[in-house]
Amino acid sequence: MVSTMAGVLDHAETVVIGNNSSEFKDIVSQVGDGQVVVDLVRGVNGMKSGEGYDGICW
After folding, report:
1. DSSP class of residue 32?
2. Given a cut of 80, is residue 58 above it in pLDDT?
3. 3-state helix, strand, coil in the chain (%, to 5)
4. Residue spans of beta strands (DSSP E) within the chain
5. How do residues 6-45 score in pLDDT, each as one tens digit?
6. pTM over cut 0.90
């Protein structure tokens, strides 16, 4: 378990957004090559599904 988003991104291949916490608002700019964001709640406004980002169920 880690306490920061940077710590998560150091190890994660996939990040699943399950709530509208403010720490996710700029997550797309923080992910690296090969990492994927799956957004279940439209936590990142203005994004459309595409390479590295998938919005599901909204």
Report:
1. -
2. no
3. 20, 20, 60
4. 14-17, 36-39, 53-55
5. 999 999 999 999 999 999 999 999 999 999 999 999 998 8
6. no
Tokens at residue 22, please?
């403010």
Residue type, 37: V
Structure tokens at 14: 């996939």
**For residue 44, is it left (φ>0), alpha (ψ between -120 and 50) or beta?**
beta
Query: What's the rounded Cα separation, in Å, for the pair 6 and 46?
Result: 23
Handedness of CA 56, 41, 43, 46 (dihedral sign): positive
Nearest-angstrom CA–CA distance, 58 and 44? 12
